[in-house]
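One such shown below:
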Amino acid sequence: MTVSQHRDGNTAYATASNTCTHAVRVRMIWAFAADGGCTSLPKGYAYTESRGAAALPPRPKVSEMRNC
């Protein structure tokens, strides 16, 4: 599993990519925003979530990925 993050204006984006050899069920745990729900990712697939981001810190970011 890899996670990449970026911000575009007032929106924070996080993309989880499944680099495992099998399907996984994961959820994104966001700092300073609501956590994401569980999602299934087949091998080789990616999933993107977004959150509104304040112009000033603290800004939302994915702090961890959890199995579910």
Remarks:
- Residues 2-54 form one domain.
- The chain has one domain: 2-54.
- Residues 31 and 61 are 5 Å apart (CA to CA).
- Strands lie at 2-8, 11-17, 24-31, 39-41, 46-52, 61-67.
